[in-house]
Design a protein that fits this description.
The protein is mainly α. It contains 15 helices and six strands. About 5% of the residues have low confidence.
């Protein structure tokens, strides 16, 4: 698989080049994004926030910085742990209030290509996304203004912000911009599945059967068996920029999902389709973490779905039995699919030192 090395300021957008020529950032080094050519370059980086080596490094420090929380004990990394593909292992995350948040923590892998963020797609752009957990009372619980003041009182951060943004005063917008720069670099593209696509990994018989089931839709009238997964999780990035109702409830009452944003009844219980990359690491599953294992997820799609009026069409019609009402996979087929899903774990992503906590193990010098 051909790998693209992108100098963002030159190849992604001309506005970023102009920004780099501004007097206060002329010395900054453009950050090289490295990703497979198959991922495509259909993403947007704001003209006023081009990726630079220095900006990404500052964002990484802030990602692991508990001063951004009301209690000085919670950082972005508290709910987005690198070893878990930047998710956590809770049904619902716990923030500064000690109370569960409303939804399961999503993986941050490959957000560069995601347009509508959060389970309900409430915002576009990582800069806008970052402000929500920072200021939410149950997550980090602190205004951007207070966060900026706290960072300004340290010895560590003022010179770094001045280097990246050129001003003498740290602002809330600069905090979200730096965090967004770092998050855009969290690219996962080196799993065994990727190496298979490159011709560098040979699938076992079980993995091969799982891949074929994953990618195929069932057609029992022609004797074709499939799990129909690729309709929602297809393509090399293993997600689609869409929202689906996947039959978790007959009517979504406690959490209406996308409907809360659009107000449309047809969006009741619809949620963003997440990537399946590193899926074996990101349990529990679904927006509310109701399923503890991949086996439970497959059981849901196979025989336990509700059928609300707006159930996604692909789920409504998929069956391996002529005239069947459920998907109808066998136990052996489900095991094959799970074997394939484990191929999506990118061990280099979860151990990459460029994404790890940059602060010393002892308390950083302030």
């Amino acid at each position: 698989m051909k790998i693209l090395r992108v100098i963002v300021s030159l190849l992604v957008f001309l506005g970023g080049l102009a920004a780099l020529k501004a007097p206060h950032v002329a010395h900054l080094r453009p950050y090289s994004l490295v990703y497979p050519s198959s991922f495509g370059s259909r993403f947007t980086i704001p003209e006023n926030n081009p990726l630079t080596e220095e900006g990404v490094a500052l964002g990484r420090m802030l990602f692991y910085e508990p001063l951004l929380s009301k209690t000085n004990t919670v950082s972005c990394s508290s709910c987005h742990q690198q070893s878990l593909a930047f998710s956590d292992n809770r049904r619902l995350s716990i923030g500064v209030s000690g109370k569960p948040t409303r939804r399961n923590s999503m993986s941050l892998a490959n957000l560069l290509w995601v347009k509508n963020l959060f389970w309900d797609g409430r915002v576009s752009g990582l800069e806008a996304q970052a402000a929500f957990p920072l200021t939410h009372p149950h997550e980090m619980g602190q205004s951007l203004e207070i966060s900026a003041k706290k960072l300004s009182k340290t010895r560590l951060y003022p010179p770094l912000f001045k280097e990246v943004f050129g001003g003498a005063t740290i602002t809330g917008d600069q905090i979200t911009q730096a965090l967004s720069q770092f998050e855009r670099t969290l690219i996962s593209a080196n799993s065994p599945y990727d190496r298979y696509l490159e011709g560098k990994y040979q699938l076992s018989a079980t993995e091969k059967r799982g891949l074929e089931l994953f990618m195929r839709g069932p057609a029992p009238e022609r004797g074709v068996r499939g799990a129909n997964c690729a309709h929602c999780h297809g393509g090399v990035k293993l997600f689609q920029e869409v929202f689906h109702n996947n039959g978790l409830d007959s009517i979504a009452v406690q959490d209406k999902g996308r409907q809360e944003i659009t107000g449309e009844a047809s969006d009741n219980g619809r949620f963003r389709v997440p990537t399946l990359r590193n899926i074996a690491l990101t349990a529990p599953y679904m927006h509310d973490g109701r399923f503890a294992t991949l086996e439970e997820v497959l059981d849901h799609y196979n025989e336990r779905m509700f059928h609300p009026s707006n159930l996604s069409h692909e789920l409504r019609t998929a069956t391996n039995v002529e005239g069947g009402k459920t998907l109808g996979l066998t136990s052996a087929e489900k095991k094959d699919i799970i074997a394939f899903l484990h191929l999506l774990t990118d061990s280099t992503f979860i151990t990459n030192p460029a994404f790890a906590n940059p602060h010393p193990k002892n308390k950083p010098i302030r």
